[in-house]
Amino acid sequence: MVPDSLIDLGFWAAAIELVGGLIIAGYVVVALWALARWHAPERARLLVAEGVIAGLSFKLAGTLLKTILIHSWEQLAMFVAIFVLRLVLKRFFEWELAKVRHAERTG
After folding, report:
1. Rg (CA), the chain
2. CA distance 69 to 45
């Protein structure tokens, strides 16, 4: 017999999003450590951008899993707003990452 928590999609969506949050927090801690240790702000920016991109991928996956649980138009509108916001943030951080990497190569 399978426990109910293993079937609950809301639980799995929250767990996946938690992993994304932990990834982002971990990268921020490493970036702060690099900044304090080596005084390298460009490296810290690169680490934060990489962490946000990786973490937002998990958070987007969790949000997509929640689509199965949508039962009203209000929930659908909230889902779309959150999804678009996370997608825009991810694209922004990918752009920032490319900019920092380009600066490292040319500088």
Report:
1. 17
2. 36
Summarize pLDDT for 37-88 with one digit per residue, the tens: 999 888 899 999 999 999 999 988 888 888 888 888 998 898 889 889 988 9
Q: Measured between alpha carbons, how far is 83 from 95 in angstroms, rounded to an integer? A: 18
Question: Residue 40 — φ and ψ, nearest 5°?
Answer: -115, 85
Amino acid at 34: A
Contacts of 12 (CB under 8 A, 6+ apart): 62, 65
Return the structure tokens found at 34.
């690099």
Whole-number Å distance between alpha carbons of 7 and 93: 34
- Indicate the angle between helix axes 73-106 and 41-66, nearest 10 degrees: 160
Look at the pTM and tell me if it is higher than 0.90.
no
Range 71-99 burial, b when 16+ CB lie within 10 A, else e = eeeeeeeebeeebeebeeebeebeebbee
* Alpha-carbon distances of 37 from 25, 33, 41, rounded to whole Å: 18, 6, 11
